[in-house]
User: Fold these one by one.
Assistant:
Number 1:
Amino acid sequence: MTGSFDILIVGVGGQGTILASNVLGEACLIEGRHVAGAETHGMAQRGGSVESHIRIDAAGGPLISPGTADLLIAFDLLEALRYRHFLAPGGVMVAAEQIIVPTPVFQQKLAIPTPEAIIERLGGIELCRVDAAALAVEAGSILAQNIVMLGAASGFMPLAAGSLIKAVMRCVPPKTVAINVAAFEKGMDAGEACRTA
Amino acid sequence: MLGNEGIAHACLEANIDFASGYPGTPSSEVIDTLRVQQERRLYVEWSVNEKVAFENALAAAWCGLRALVTMKHVGLNVAADPLMTSAYTGVTGGFVILAADDPFAHSSQNEQDSRRYAHFARIPCLDPASVQEAHDMIAGAFSLSEEVGLPVMVRPTTRICHSKSDVALGPAGTEHREGQFHRDPKQYVVIPAHTRVLHTKLNAKQRDLAVRLVELGFNTADVRGKIAVIASGIAAAYVSEVIPEDVSVATIGAYPIDEEWLAAFVRQHDAVVVVEELDPVVEEVVRQVAGDIPVSGKKNGYAPREGELNPAAVAGILARAGVLAESGFPAPEPVPDLPPRPPILCAGCMHRAAFYAIKKAFPDAVYPSDIGCYTLGLQLGVVDTTICMGASITVASGIAHSGEPRDVVCTIGDSTFLHTGIQGLMNAVYNGATMTVVILDNRITAMTGHQPNPTTGQTACGVESVPVSLDAICRACGVSFVETVDPYDLTATIECLKVARGTAGVKVVIAKQPCVISARRAGVKRKAFAVDADACTGCRACVRFGCPAIEFADEKAYITDLCAGCGVCAEICPAGAISVEVKQ
Ligand code: SF4
Ligand code: SF4
């Protein structure tokens, strides 16, 4: 509403949404942009559904209202659907292929929608699907899925890839820089494929 | 940086020499930042509870230091006793009480509004609207505290503490003070003769204080039209996103509010809307001074009294009050009927094993519990009550004395036991209750981000300390049945609990095993487990155990790479199908 670019990252506690939002924040600092964001800490981090709001060049508070996010990055397909209503008309969603099945589904034998059903229920939005797990393994570690997702989404944000890569290098543990940069680049290629498709 | 990191850095800039606190979401990262930073030397402690933390910091401020105490809003209840009288005694060094509120109870048992406490205690309260403002207010809070000789509360909310933003920082301060206590019984010994005088002095300060907060620029007003919006704290940030240019705005960043100043502003308008989170603290003052100018807000139902706001919610309030023609925000509905994803105990968490054993040994009992990761035992059906820190043991003894015929077995974590559990235990023994207390001892304050406590063996700053003996504490309280078990050894734990069940009086079972996250960080590696698909009968016993590493497909269980190797599911599986994974 205020000319900001609003990014919502959603996933499951433990998937590294906070690190991903740190990278975006750092990239904004590198570019001298104002950034505000809000994220989930505390109890919900234990495997619960988590969200990080990142608002680039926003004048007001850190929260994105439903229906106004320019970009939604989902680390899990089920969470993509749970937060779908945050997306603005015309907004873009970049979503990982996989679903982490919530444990209560097994315990209480709940029904879980298939990926195809989820895609259908997401409705006609611009959706870029990324096999984050496979790309992360290719890059050297399954733990780098969050960075793969950032790479895939990078082409949809008003931040230069160079700043994002620099930010990745600053934010991840020193020993994992090479793997994470590779993960980012693999993600970038996947995102590029979406945009030219 | 994170709001709490900005606040912590501002304390360094303001030359603080003393910081204490008890962890509590969303406040914890302030002390967590101070205890590891290298920019400034200062004394930092994690205290055993908020009252202890408060009194320590207050004493340091009496000795002339700039001191900070941090806690979450409900922690302030625990510290309320010293809070109320510290306003009477006042301080010499700047004393800032950081009480972080949690609208929407993201990670809390209630949504209380700490501004009420500041009002109750008659101390100033600062309420920032952004991370930058939270940072900037800290310097103001310390100097204000010294200027007026009162503790000053700073009350950020979750969306400040856990917001991230670019923040303009200053350099860490280089001045240090040496503490010195100046004996002055009239100030520090609050016998009736002294306290009556102190109370009069405290009341006399209020008027000038309110005026001063306007002078200092914490409360501002901008007349732009005939309708006005008055907003406080983070709500002011949301208002700034949606307010039209011809609507006046006043921002309340500090309390008490100068009523004359406020009245002068309100009277220039035909109608006023108040936007704030939680209680109508500002609105009540506005209504007092508004005369017959109509005021909208919570009292006429335009704004909610609970939960948190966001720009769309604020636009909705302004639309209802006629300030905006329409909210201008879409109102999309969430997709219905999705399987929920609640938070859940980690794979290999010792709490899950302990709860499983409790359920086996006490299949039909009442299970009072407490506050920590283990509150998630709710999903396992072994958490019947949770009200506040330490209340598992007291609620258990109350139920036991009420005549309830079932066994009573309560659960409490190590940090919570040390926080306010011990008194309840002593009381239960003294008054002859029959009950079982299970102390879930994972050696750390896990839920708030793994802070050390007196069982850990090191202080906030990493200095080695003598770990307290929970066993010895319980025995000193008069408990004669105190047993320590390894909850990963399910058989032994169930056996021990059964013996406790058959024993009279208050029994304590200490289930001891480090939190899997801190164990992993400390380099503990355990072999992962796997299901032998041929042996698995698909009975789902392990699935019901609820470990997030165990999934189920095609009538067989299997274990994912989340497995932490605790081995408990192997003990549960009736077919013996689970064992340490053999790598091909
Ligand atoms: S953080 Fe530690 S105590 Fe908390 S759920 Fe995980 S393993 Fe259990
Ligand atoms: S051994 Fe079993 S219960 Fe323990 S973490 Fe692994 S899968 Fe979960």
Number 2:
Amino acid sequence: MRVALFVTCLVDLFRPGVGFAAVRLLERLGAEVVVPPEQTCCGQPAYNSGDFANARAIARQVLDAFDGYAHVVVPSGSCAGMLVRHYPELFRDEPETLARAEALAARTRELSAFLAEHGSADTLDVRFAGRVAMHDSCSARRELGIGAAPRALLDALGAARVEFEDAEACCGFGGTFCVKYPDVSARMVSDKAHAVTASGADVLVSGDLGCLLNIAGRLKRMDSPVRVYHLAELLVGIDGVPGIGDGDTR
Amino acid sequence: MKPTSHAFADNAHRALDDATLQQALAKAGVGFVAKRRAAVAELPEFDALRQAGRAIKDHTLAHLDHYLLRFEETLQAAGGQLHWAETPDAACAAVLEICRDAGASIVAKGKSMVGEEIALNDALEGAGFEVVETDLGEYIIQIAHEPPSHIIAPAVHKTRAQIAALFEAHHRQPGLARPLESVPQIVDEAREVLREKFLSADVGITGANFLIAETGSTVIVTNEGNGDLSATLPRVHIVLASIEKVVPNLEDASVLLRLLARSATGQEITSYTSFFTGPRRSEDPDGPEEFHVVLLDNGRSRLLGGAFHDMLRCIRCGACLNHCPVYGAVGGHAYGWVYPGPMGAVLTPLMVGLEEGAPLPNASTLCGRCEEVCPMAIPLPKLLREHRRQEFDRGLVAGRSRWALAAWAFLARRPALYRLASRAGARLLHKLSRGRGRFAKLPLAQAWTAARDLPAPQGDTFMAQWRRSKRG
Ligand code: SF4
């Protein structure tokens, strides 16, 4: 099984460890992982800013880079949602490209969904017995309907899942929203960080690095003891790996 | 009402700093969400109902001309009169003329968002009529001289203490104080003051949740019964409605009513669902002598078949407001016009212009919770994005954002160059973080770092490390 990994721009830039964790998890399923070099970003910043011309240009680039792979895996619900739900929308009026976009959408999976579908729970080689809060990104939850898959993986790790208040609310990241309306965003992420801290979780995970950078940033500012990781990192073991926003010395 | 939507950022900032407002919002939000959730959970076929409701609206909108003309016929057959109004001014003029012809001095008004849209109170008061709001929430904001902050709960931004103080100031002669501590006491107080007015009003104005083409009826739902009193006691009843409110028949209305109550307040049905069909007939025990329907377009017909067509399905239930994290944080007034929240962020730019309303579609994370709860399955995030597209194409995006986006896109479209730039950026930031893992402050990142730290990159980019590894 050949799997093409769409790294995502945030993982590439901020948290390469998530990419390598994804590679390890996929290889344990027996996959040969390929990282097409012509990838940059899924184009969502342009799309959500109304710049459809650039969004289409970047989408075409992704269509080309991931042409011919039977499986495309993305360690982000947001970017996966862009490929799966929004590329077809972008090319609604271009039949040829639309067909390619729909084909890509059908081959693309968010990482935790792919792992769960392919029996990753049986191939994990670490355990984590701590209390874990799972944050679903809005895209994973509402655009892709992912919720059971990451939880099944956490259960396989032996983690104690803890619930927190208003879990279905957005964390306030929203791409450029967080810098366009910083005080509204700050309020939203504060509510989220308080709820997570109050849950008594040792660790917060999510499948989306955007949310994680945002929530971790607020948790650190509040001096919350909760450590923050991408789900993929927890699944390969976080011993000796500083959490998001934590220093080397921790 | 003069819109202040262009100043959303400032409005929002003030709202976030307003402790009393925050108290009121926190209380309201939780209640609405929990009630809707319970009501939907009790109805396993809610999704099927939603599909049925959507189909009814889609069908009606596809044949809107037919159903509107049919409604005109049946309304006239029942003895009512229809007044077509293309613009808010035309609608106000029609209402004023009816009031003048009736020789009215006091006008009793039930809750009507179309009334807000056309700024009817200003028009009536400007022409010398006394306007009495009979809906408790509307009455509260009327004496507070404020616009509504929610489409079904206009005074939701007020705390109980604020309302008691308002009543205290407006109803009391000095020394004549009655306690106004509990909700029932407040309601009783309002009832006493308002009942007088009902009895002396010459014209009653109400909104409409639906217009029934088959029967010429108008339908209104309330929980206070004030709509019925505004409609039946005065000599003349005027119904304000907009053209997308028409549905083919009573069966269709009943499907939509079930969706509306559950989505709005979590009720199976509102306390009062009133159907009005023409003026009083000879065998009727009560009812008005004249029955008028003022039907507003205000740009809606232009939306038919266009990018915003889906918005015409909206039944004004308010669920998207109640579930919106931005609305929940800043309340309705920050949106700067009549319609707030996600539905307002779509409608306001369409009704007051994209320039004035420009910030609203951007003030959203597109989290999709509104679309998820919308009983009419309106793709609100998609419509917000469509506004953003039009703003971008029309050059309404601020220079700095535009420039930053262009610079980023230039790189993102050139993978080799992008890899160099992202690598340089990641390494530089990693180095600057000096092993602390995050930044409390960073030049050009104040918007982020004002309230949260910025996690630092781990080191080299993934792409560079991958290439270096033997597999690359
Ligand atoms: S957009 Fe949907 S949820 Fe919002 S008010 Fe209209 S019908 Fe209700």
